[in-house]
Amino acid sequence: MKKSIFLFLTGVLLIMCLSGCGKTKYNLLYDGYGFESKKTKYTAGETVTVYYDLIATDTDYSFFLDCDDVSLKQDYDNSHGYIFTFTMPDHDVTIGVKSRNSMEYDPGAMSGYGNEPESTDDGTDAPAGEGMWVCPECGYNANTGGFCSNCGRKKDA
Prior knowledge:
Elements: H1 2-19, E1 25-31, E2 35-36, E3 41-43, E4 47-52, E5 59-65, E6 73-77, E7 81-87, E8 93-101, E9 118-119, E10 125-126
């Protein structure tokens, strides 16, 4: 009886050791939205794959880990978005993202579409429409309020 219990417990321990159940697992944490992985806990030395598909146009992304001892490999494909892989160390790891809008205002982008100031015979800019005024500072001719829409100068009285 004692021998069969001993053999049973030895078998259970052997199975646990071979299957990795007894190994310490570390957390994969996310600092931001849009990350996905098949698991949230990994053993040290295990390959971790993380996907990020929360992608917007005109946005620059910067991805990071909270530790310096892990080498993060980055790839991209159209079906998954960004794909990151690394080897899990013997501690928890947080992966994060910082993003910024990369779309910049270009005041000349609409030139050639009727947005240029009209000129009078004497070469000065004429107001584009009724109630509009020309800024003496920058020459912008489509102002309607009390301040120039282009440079901010206050309308002369």
